[in-house]
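Fill-in record for NAD-dependent epimerase/dehydratase.
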Amino acid sequence: MRLLETNKDVQVVLFDCNPDMRRITGFNKGPSDPQDPKYDPKDRYNTVADRVTFVQGDLALLSHVLAVFDKHEPTSVFHLGALLSAGADANPTLGFDVDLLGTRHVFEAARIYCQHNKKPPVRVLFPSTIASFGLFPFTDPNDIHKLVVRPPKPEDKLVVPNEAIQLPTTMYGVSKVSVERLGEHYHAKGWIDFWAVRFPSVVGAARGPGGTTAYSTLMIQEPLMDKAYEVYVSSDTRLDIIYVKDAVDALIRLHDAKDLKLRRVYNIAGIRIGGEAPQASDIAAAVKLVKPNAAAITYKQNDQLTAIVHTFGILDAKATYDDLQWAGPTFDLKQTIIDCKSEIDQYPGRIKAIELY
């Protein structure tokens, strides 16, 4: 929607295996079918609908991806398709096929299309993740010269530099690291124009299921919709989070950047409270501040999911500030929840049932 609403000449092809278009048609307050008697051409989605083409297909099938390039001839690709962390670990075969093999299909389709048609490389934007770092090397307290590798603990308060070592512990993280390296290789060969951002957990109304950190959205979304929510981590669990509108801004800023030569992949820092990532209890308190009569938020720790969340550090975005002139998130925690509430109130049709999580 940001691309369509900020540039009247942009045409968008939305390629997805899921034919449920509510995440975009739901930006309307009324019907999106022109034949419906209540259709309003000035409704938000309806004003841009003639520049959106939906193509149903499977990233894991090269023929599907090749067909999109062959028919629609994109000049830029925002490659956002993935099976998220919890889903990829539950089904590692599908996780590999979608997250790693599917991304290679995008790269190959872009390479073949441009070489065959003698066109300049397609710019490919890719969202990597804080989960790509995983384990970290630590100095053994019993031997200053010895390094050990262990999962970080919450008290480590890890700040992760842009060029930190990456030792992921999930299929999702492994795939993201692999794609970062593969994208850099394709770029070095001149086959694609590759750029990537590493996001913290992205918070926003109507986010999809399957992520280990989905609770960070659901503990906002559900209580604001007067539905109680049980958080599956402890109240003092910290998590680097960013509001979806800031995440979109970072992707578009990178897409539009010129003359970047130092690196291909950038950390995107999330919301900070006193220099630290918010605790789950901070999010809960902000929800109550914005809506005092919000439904209850309770906690019941899932040890497996909590252990994964505890491997996430805090992203250091100094390189992003310096190279992209990006000043960091514009939405703090309270503003995030206020805007999230506005989106939920205005566009309830975008919200998926919690049974899907």
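KEY FINDING: The chain has one domain: 57-355.
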